[in-house]
Amino acid sequence: MPKAILPTYQIPDFEKVSVDPQEFYYSRLEKHLQTHLFIQKPHKHDFYILVFFSHGNGTHIIDFKSYPVTPKSMFFLAPGQVHSWTLSPDTKGHILFFSQSFYTSTYSLAKLNSFIFFNSNLTIPLLNLDSAQFIKLASNFEKVEEEIIHPSWSSMDLLKSYTNILLTLSYRYFLDQNPQLKNQIPNLDQFQKLEKIIEEAFSVQRDVNFYASQMNMSLKQLNLLTQKKTGKPISQLLMERVILESKRLLVHSDLSISEIAFKLQFEDPSYFSRLFKKKTSYSPEKFRLLQQSSSI
């Protein structure tokens, strides 16, 4: 039977909580891992995730990039990313999901978008905490847990507040550790608008002038924006998104190389193969075999 393309999970796919199972989820990490065994395999999600590790070690793979899992570390995942992990049996911590609408019903979308650790093109989604930071964040996760276990009047408002505090504190710690990122904050809304357009159109539209037009910019202005934010021209960002989707399809589907090429709007599969090898140093066939052997 052909392998299904990656599952995309929604918050209601997980164990229900007593407050708002459509928009919000919280669990102790150890319980979550025992209850939802299916998350060990690569998957997507349509919500934001905070994962806080107090104990344990392992590897967290996010869109083919590996990050070490250690005690006093925290990960941030945005909707649409593909991830999986291998964790030691003693892993403990907290995990929290929330939808965009959950957060923006109280706070602005611009504020949510300002949390740079959700932006994979600008930074890495990992925060290593010192002891004081760890204790402060752990305390706020425990407040979320208390509200979930004992919901009462205005619980949703408190959960939104605690979520915002977790994000705000994390962002403060993140900028303290990465002061160079403070220069990325101006015009972040513009860059995220571009990312959204790329996400919606990359598989069918490769003309960089299309993206300049959608942004109401000249191509020169658009390249200045992307160079300032990522050090890359728009053409490179666009190609990186195409290559990422190629990797996802090669690893997480049984589509042939030709079928993947056509799905991504390449008229000539041999050109797709040459381009993939140029960008990754591997042919599509070799990349698929390497990924399959590494997962055994």
From TrEMBL:
Pfam families to which the protein is assigned, alphabetical: AraC_binding (PF02311), HTH_18 (PF12833)
UniProt entry tagged with the keyword Transcription: yes
GO MF term set: DNA-binding transcription factor activity; sequence-specific DNA binding
Entry's transmembrane regions: none
InterPro entries associated with the record: AraC-bd (IPR003313), Homeodomain-like_sf (IPR009057), HTH-like (IPR037923), HTH_AraC (IPR018060), RmlC-like_jellyroll (IPR014710), Tscrpt_reg_AraC-type_HTH (IPR020449)
Key words, A-Z: DNA-binding, Transcription, Transcription regulation
HTH araC/xylS-type domain: residues covered: 192-290
Domain of life of the native organism: Bacteria
Full protein name: Transcriptional regulator, AraC family
Organism field: Algoriphagus halophilus
